């Protein structure tokens, strides 16, 4: 704030103008809206339609002020949310202008004549901008004596957002958010005059991953969520700031809870990260923590019955310690912490593996991974942070060009998507190296301008698996765009599917000067790398092969020199293979669902074969079935910790719900280690954070980045196509369990293929196709889109399309494709919602083991549709 | 032509310029138009430099005939001189102001004068696309325009290389879907783009970013139809009609309780007294009670205002606006509150809903007036009406709200007694609790 003292007149800074607001002089940047200038001075002008992250609308007229320009008073009061500051301007708000005050009171009275004033039963009551501002700026009594407008209530906007139209003040925040920020105009203004209302858009599927934000920015109680509606009053809730655990975006959030139970989550405000938004998964998916099948007590496998039974912590820890010691002393134990751990928990796993198990066989990557990726992470990613050369959200927003490779922002990191979209709406050219014009690609390469869509970038299509080769030979347009200073290349975790892609990214960065950002999906991935849960890295990016680095850690951990293992360990795949073949005796498994692994069958074999398995889990998984000991651990909401988001930015959070008795992984591992006569000193996340702080990051040498030649995409043989696949944001993920309303907004499951490929294989949109590989088959509805020929795209884990589990192959692999026997006419699969015939695809049919093109798959499709049509 | 159109002062108060062909047989055909000097101005214009035409229109002082009276030449001058994006000329033919009936008759009787004006104006502002946005309800007029545009294309007045000048122009006739707000120029542009018609935030103004975010000028039908005459007659001739600041002829549309309602083209500044004489006086000799000078959005006037010169300045001095020169004339048999209620119901129906004051205010005003006319009003209602009007006037997003309160404030200003009389019945009953007047009976 730059309020100048009245006595001296310093010069107006370059790019600023000097004006007077309520008699006080202020310098404001050119182009700033009056309402913001006033806000910076602490002068609050009431408003409804105004929102700093939305384009000005000037619809509600609540923010009227008196304005003088060039010494002349403007005849009408002006909307301060649409008028920009000017030199010499004199602004009088409601505090100093009776005219402005009357104008505001008049608008408030008008807003209330048709408002039901049902605050006592309205979810927004107690936190309602209309309520608050009416009390502050309105008349205490209305002169309205006539009949209010009423509507039938409520209208479901989506399965999780409900609309009570009579409460709406028609500020258009929700519709503007949907159109401008999310790019999903699923709601629109309909009708006119006093009958104007928000309604579902005519030519839109209604699908949006961001619809929950409309509830939060609604300045009245018109939009409510199905999950929270009528559940509690804001003043009965305790609000605790937190960090979202769902992905690596690192959203700040607010968790509202009471009596030990989370009632709702809201997006927190963090201009550097998520601004004021979050995705629907972050907002609505939190009831997994209160699922009825959550472990509350340790379980130990009964020797006689072979079943798991509840046990005391003492017994369970003793059993686990004994078993692990035995396994360690036999052929060793591998550690799989999973990608959802906090940095503190990851550190405990890292320390446990090295100190208690004496091994580097640790890998948190419960997903596709490669040696090349590990080299890339150790050379290019580890140690980067906003203050240490890392790419940030702001860098994306200000970049002249961004290229996303093996990364689907909307599905894998929705807040990165929102920032890319914001950038594209300003000036950034966004390119995607991918397979098809997915909704997320479309919304970042063609954004709505004032006069129609503006093309801000392009999809650079390539066959799946061919990304590395494509990156080496980018089209000139993209290559040149990336040569501009500030350009960014964003790489997703899927890059590990493509041999040579990490190396090609490094080569591209060298060639063009573009900076590299790596965006994993899971919230814990980035922190786990820093914490040392990979087979080649100790905490702080120290190489296990570097004797000086090892010595650092040995000192810090109070170990005798040369006690740390000095050879790189096995990665996830190696650990599982070694266990399955009997080279390893035991497994310590964190939050890993074997079905998320690139080879679930191998994981099952490993679990089967292992002599001893300890599972640290919240809820049953495949690992539970084979675990000898299950140790319950706390969900994010019941512990404190830190996630590093994709930027490397530390996102600390405190315990939200205290005293539940559940323990974070680091505490459980600490106690377990004590049972094994090892002191980890990881009793609390705070203690770990302190140790991490003292340890600092490694300033020694970094390994060379990988330089693996790009391999071309595989060549499909007869009946074969290339598989492209990635996760959808809302899918079968276990953290989305118990959220039926959220699930209702997931994208329909469909296989995508090009028109030519469809023709070649005799497939029509809406018909089912069966994709087969060595592991099995997946049968889903097909949709024809514009994408490279001889390619099929499947969602990785949506509905029946469980690519890892059913097919056992991944992105870029060769798979068999066959059209299913057409269902009889009239029994065509119906869309899940008959009122939305334009829904891109209907329900998919699960057909795990049917042979390609089998009759059964077709029958199944028919019977399914019969059900939904009835 | 000049002589015919401009007889010596005093001999004939009418100045048939825009209307001079209206009574010719099949006046709407190209054949008739060409016989009566049609498209002669176009040839002159195409041989001039575009900037000369803008200067000519500025010199003539032609002011926008859609109601606001903004100088047309100045508006054209806002268009960029060096086109980097397509330029658009949009004709506002969405004539919807209650009482207004000048553009539709003009397009019915003489559509080619509009088309000729379009070509000249488009040439002046370097536009190669012109859209005529016609009120959809005027279906016959839409058809006639389509026919005229087709004729013009066939004869080389539209399309590629018009009259060998090298200038290209395409004209599209677009029928609106019946929303009053689409007469507001930015709402009209949204509607043309296929969106819901609601006014846009300004700036940017249409001349910077209008239709499809390209430089655009929106002109009224009568304004553009005047252009060929300005080109042929010159600015001096044009200024021989009307008054210093409001020169030229104007079509006055007289409706209501007059003997011969219709369009009367007279110089700007003509008074109602003169127009009533032309129209044969009040119907059946019943005395005049109140009238609107330019549609229902302009504050109404009374018999005391018979000598107000009806031009932009004269109307403003009398506390009203010239608007569209739609003179709705009411005799003593008409109740002012009733008429005001009907107009308010119109605005309630036509408010686009974008901004609070207009949307909610019109909804409220209509209910209060309906109740008053029904005999359930209270004196307090009159104060409420005026205060709500004050909260709408100048607070709404566009001028629709301002227009909506005009009949109420002016009606109460001149005829408060009539509103009070309506409250009498309620005052005499015992249940006159103001808090309950709106309760269902």
UniProtKB/TrEMBL annotation, chain A:
InterPro entries: 2Fe-2S_ferredoxin-like_sf, 2Fe-2S_ferredoxin-type, Asp_de-COase-like_dom_sf, Mopterin_OxRdtase, Mopterin_OxRdtase_4Fe-4S_dom, NADH_UbQ_OxRdtase_75kDa_su_CS, NADH_UbQ_OxRdtase_ferredoxin, NADH_UbQ_OxRdtase_Gsu. Pfam families: Fer2_4 (PF13510), Fer4_Nqo3 (PF22117), Molybdop_Fe4S4 (PF04879), Molybdopterin (PF00384), NADH-G_4Fe-4S_3 (PF10588). Its EC number is 7.1.1.-. Its cofactor is [4Fe-4S] cluster; [2Fe-2S] cluster. Coiled coil: none annotated. It catalyses: a quinone + NADH + 5 H(+)(in) = a quinol + NAD(+) + 4 H(+)(out). Residues 695-704 have a biased composition (Basic and acidic residues). Residues 99-138 form the 4Fe-4S His(Cys)3-ligated-type domain. Residues 237-293 form the 4Fe-4S Mo/W bis-MGD-type domain. GO terms for cellular component: membrane. Residues 695-718, 820-870 are annotated as: Disordered. Binds 1 [2Fe-2S] cluster per subunit. Residues 822-834 have a biased composition (Pro residues). GO terms for molecular function: 2 iron, 2 sulfur cluster binding; 4 iron, 4 sulfur cluster binding; metal ion binding; NADH dehydrogenase (ubiquinone) activity; NADH dehydrogenase activity; quinone binding. CDD domains: fer2 (cd00207), MopB_CT_NDH-1_NuoG2-N7 (cd02788). Keywords: 2Fe-2S, 4Fe-4S, Iron, Iron-sulfur, Metal-binding, NAD, Quinone, Translocase. One of its GO terms (biological process) is ATP synthesis coupled electron transport. PANTHER family: NADH-QUINONE OXIDOREDUCTASE SUBUNIT G, RESPIRATORY NITRATE REDUCTASE. NDH-1 shuttles electrons from NADH, via FMN and iron-sulfur (Fe-S) centers, to quinones in the respiratory chain. Couples the redox reaction to proton translocation (for every two electrons transferred, four hydrogen ions are translocated across the cytoplasmic membrane), and thus conserves the redox energy in a proton gradient. Belongs to the complex I 75 kDa subunit family. This is NADH-quinone oxidoreductase.
UniProtKB/TrEMBL annotation, chain B:
It is an enzyme of class 7 (translocase). It comes from the Bacteria. SMART domains: NADH_4Fe-4S. InterPro entries: ComplexI_51kDa_subunit, NADH-UbQ_OxRdtase_51kDa_CS, NADH-UbQ_OxRdtase_suF, Nuo51_FMN-bd, Nuo51_FMN-bd_sf, Nuop51_4Fe4S-bd, Nuop51_4Fe4S-bd_sf, Soluble_ligand-bd. Pfam families: Complex1_51K (PF01512), NADH_4Fe-4S (PF10589), SLBB (PF10531). Its EC number is 7.1.1.-. Keywords: 4Fe-4S, Flavoprotein, FMN, Iron, Iron-sulfur, Metal-binding, NAD, Quinone, Translocase. GO terms for biological process: cellular respiration. Belongs to the complex I 51 kDa subunit family. This is NADH-quinone oxidoreductase subunit F.
